[in-house]
Design a protein that fits this description.
302 residues; elongated; mainly alpha; 0% strand
């Protein structure tokens, strides 16, 4: 049995909020130095982000049409199994610590470096105002659309299993929390505990991941994509509510899948920490210019 509509809506809200937090941090890093006379450059960034939101809605519509077409060609259980696998892959990427090291040190630095280059060339009149505007708009667009695509892919499995109701509630819940953080960040200029919020949502998403993996493994068993090997001694000792709330089922395949997912997430964390503490240190003098955008972005996590 798939998790209840209320639990699904909460899980969706957590993921949407998490993706929204990451988008806000990127946009905050881009617009951090846009003050005074440079504040005018915030407008194309905001326009690009708004366009990306609309593009995410269009992507959602196209994804629905594509998956509904597949449902007409294949069995509903098979399509649900595939979309569930896609959702788990997305969640594993969101939860992967190596990915986030690349995200913060690469993605944010790329955007801030591009921003500084555009503004500097505009000041030297090497670029027209229109090209600067479009360049900054693209930075805003890519900052949000990347997160939007991840959310769209993640939600397809929930939509097929539970219908649009819980998905709509969860998305609005996550967007509401994101809007509050955006208001405090960009309009009221408040410094929020972003790191703690990311850690909290990460822990909650870890629980969501284990539930989804257990449910997905059971669906693949029903679709005969995975064998079913019951654990006889565990079956009478495992209460029924553990399957409803945590997707814990007394089979080797479902429990092994959940253990593997947990090992991947925790393993990536400890390996990233080990590399951070014991890995090679870059030369400070040679890397000082490149690290400046990263340092500005990191201030938002404190």
């Amino acid at each position: 049995m798939f998790e209840s509509g209320n639990a699904a809506a909460l899980n969706i809200g957590i993921l949407v909020f998490r993706e929204g937090l990451e988008c806000i941090l990127v946009l905050a890093a881009i617009t951090a130095s846009m003050v005074g006379a440079a504040e005018i450059y915030r407008r194309p960034v905001a326009a690009g982000a708004a366009t990306a939101f609309l593009a995410s809605l269009l992507t959602w519509s196209l994804a629905i049409r594509a998956i509904d077409d597949l449902t007409g060609r294949f069995s509903a259980l098979q399509v649900q199994a595939v979309t569930g696998l896609v959702a788990i892959v997305v969640l594993l990427i969101v939860m992967n610590w190596f990915f986030h090291r690349v995200y913060w040190t690469g993605w944010i630095a790329l955007h801030t470096t591009r921003k500084h280059a555009l503004i500097a060339r505009a000041a030297k009149q090497k670029l027209s105002a229109r090209r600067v505007w479009w360049g900054l708009a693209m930075l805003g667009f890519t900052s949000l659309y990347r997160e939007g695509v991840e959310v769209v892919l993640f939600l397809q499995g929930y939509r097929l299993k539970l219908g649009p109701g819980p998905v709509t509630i969860g998305v609005w819940f996550g967007l509401g929390l994101t809007a509050i953080v955006a208001l405090l960040t960009f309009w009221l200029r408040r410094r929020l505990p972003y790191r703690r919020m990311l850690v909290l949502t990460g822990v909650l998403l870890g629980v969501v991941l284990l539930v989804m993996v257990g449910e997905q493994a059971q669906e693949m068993q029903l679709a005969h994509w995975l064998p079913t090997t019951p654990i006889q001694w565990l079956e009478p000792r495992l209460p029924a509510w553990t399957g409803l709330w945590f997707s814990l089922f007394p089979t080797i395949e479902t429990l092994a899948a959940q253990v593997l997912a947990g090992v991947l997430v925790l393993g990536s964390y400890f390996m990233a920490r080990h590399r951070e503490l014991h890995g090679p240190r870059p030369d400070a003098s040679a890397d000082s210019v490149k690290s400046a955008p990263i340092q500005r972005a990191a201030t938002h996590l404190r």
